[in-house]
């Protein structure tokens, strides 16, 4: 029999797909890639896959790798899709594909199946990553197959199929929205959120953050340490990448930090609405930026900021395993070498307020920057500087006088 690896969650969609793939004649190897989904009984999910006829089932915990090797390089770029979205879902997808392809190679499976729809971004991220890693792999995306959609036009038919097959699922026919969670963030979309007159902050039952109105009335201070642009400590305690994200999720979350509501442009061309919460990563983005203000040369910082939107697009589109992205990762690793130090901020009712920052590699010189008299900056030097800078304008002004 042909065999495939299925990116498996144990939920309704992938449970149906597992049964359908078997109906289609496949031996199915289920892979639950643990990127920090909600607290679930992992052993029960694995047992469920076995009970439903999977050839094999395994859980692979990649939370540390997700934070260290995927989220933190994107953080170094200060990459935000369309200026606001911190890319929590986008970052995880190429890693999920990588793990599934590693298992496929190990078990000798020639196909890789996933449950992403034909309307969304995840199909792009899964497939582009998989084909870059194994150009010969066969991608099975059931929601893009007409026969599958005809068999399962809605959740009612999917639930009925599971009942007929004896597949245990916890699912309701109507949902107010769908959500996707990992250790970096939670995304909410579809359902009632497709109505733009609906207040997303009122509809969503947030899982990582309290509302700013319900946050404590006193600010909470926190210090984040960086080495070469990589977060390494919280309040002076050295922690792993995943531990840092965990601690900041808890502390920022209880202070209402990290919620957004965005109308974004999907890779496939349509606009869609997403509500997101990413408390820990929001703190890391802000503290990282504050430290860069001390340590990164102006022209280098401005160059990075011009390229960052393109980096965000590549991550959002799923173009992680490309020569261009490899080069961009090498660039940012070099550019971030001086970004070492500590930043202290106050978390208060959804806000992050700078308190202090320090670095052994700081480019800030108080003697030069001081507005007081004296100091090491000779203001007379500005005269010649401005004569040189203004030369083109003076020449143009003589040749083509402006009305004023």
From TrEMBL:
Gene3D superfamilies in UniProt: Argininosuccinate synthetase, chain A, domain 2 (3.90.1260.10), HUPs (3.40.50.620)
Subcellular locations according to the entry: Cytoplasm
Domain Arginosuccinate synthase C-terminal: 177-395
Catalytic activity, reaction form: L-citrulline + L-aspartate + ATP = 2-(N(omega)-L-arginino)succinate + AMP + diphosphate + H(+)
Recorded GO CC terms: cytoplasm
SUPFAM superfamilies: Adenine nucleotide alpha hydrolases-like, Argininosuccinate synthetase, C-terminal domain
Record-level GO BP terms: argininosuccinate metabolic process; L-arginine biosynthetic process; urea cycle
Binding site for L-citrulline: 85, 90, 121, 125, 178, 187, 264, 276
Key words of the record: Amino-acid biosynthesis, Arginine biosynthesis, ATP-binding, Cytoplasm, Ligase, Nucleotide-binding
Broad class of where this protein is predominantly found: cytoplasm
Top EC category: ligase
This enzyme's EC code(s): 6.3.4.5
The Arginosuccinate synthase-like N-terminal domain, residue ranges: 4-168
Binding site for ATP: 7-15, 115
UniProt pathway annotation: Amino-acid biosynthesis; L-arginine biosynthesis; L-arginine from L-ornithine and carbamoyl phosphate: step 2/3
Molecular-function GO terms, alphabetical: argininosuccinate synthase activity; ATP binding
Binding site for L-aspartate: 117, 121-122
Assembly and interaction partners: Homotetramer.
Family: Belongs to the argininosuccinate synthase family. Type 1 subfamily.
Name of the protein in question: Argininosuccinate synthase
Gene: argG
């Amino acid at each position: 029999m042909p065999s495939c690896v299925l990116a498996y969650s144990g939920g309704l969609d992938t449970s149906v797909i597992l049964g359908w793939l078997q109906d289609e004649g496949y031996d199915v190897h289920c892979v639950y890639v643990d990127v920090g989904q909600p607290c679930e009984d992992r052993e029960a999910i694995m047992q469920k896959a076995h009970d439903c006829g999977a050839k094999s089932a395994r859980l692979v915990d990649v939370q540390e790798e997700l934070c260290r090797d995927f989220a933190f390089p994107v953080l170094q770029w200060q990459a935000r899709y369309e200026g606001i979205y911190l890319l929590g879902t986008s970052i995880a997808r190429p890693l999920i594909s990588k793990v599934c392809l590693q298992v496929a190679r190990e078990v000798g499976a020639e196909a890789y199946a996933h449950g992403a729809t034909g309307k969304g971004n995840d199909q792009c991220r899964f497939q582009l990553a998989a084909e870059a890693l194994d150009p010969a792999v066969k991608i099975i995306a059931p929601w893009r197959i007409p026969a599958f959609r005809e068999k399962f036009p809605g959740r009612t038919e999917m639930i009925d199929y599971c009942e007929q097959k004896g597949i245990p699922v916890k699912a309701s026919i109507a949902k107010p929205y769908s959500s996707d969670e990992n250790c970096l963030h939670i995304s909410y979309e579809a359902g009632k959120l497709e109505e733009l007159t609906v207040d997303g902050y009122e509809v969503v039952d947030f899982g990582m953050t309290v509302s700013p109105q319900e946050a404590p009335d006193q600010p909470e201070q926190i210090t984040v340490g960086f080495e070469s642009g990589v977060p390494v400590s919280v309040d002076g305690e050295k922690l792993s990448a995943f531990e840092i994200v965990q601690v900041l999720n808890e502390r920022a979350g209880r202070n209402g930090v990290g919620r957004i509501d965005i109308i974004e442009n999907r890779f496939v061309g349509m606009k869609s609405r997403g509500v997101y919460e990413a408390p820990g990563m929001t703190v890391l983005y802000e503290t990282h930026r504050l430290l860069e203000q001390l340590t990164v040369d102006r022209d280098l910082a401005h160059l990075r900021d011009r390229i960052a939107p393109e980096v965000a697009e590549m991550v959002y589109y799923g173009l992680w395993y490309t020569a261009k992205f490899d080069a961009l990762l090498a660039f940012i690793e070099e550019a971030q070498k001086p970004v070492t130090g500590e930043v202290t901020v106050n978390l208060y009712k959804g806000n992050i307020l700078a308190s202090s920052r320090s670095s052994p590699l700081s480019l800030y010189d108080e003697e030069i920057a001081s507005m007081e008299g004296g100091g090491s900056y000779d203001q007379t030097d500005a005269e010649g500087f401005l004569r040189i800078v203004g030369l083109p304008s003076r020449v143009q002004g003589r040749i083509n006088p402006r009305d004023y």
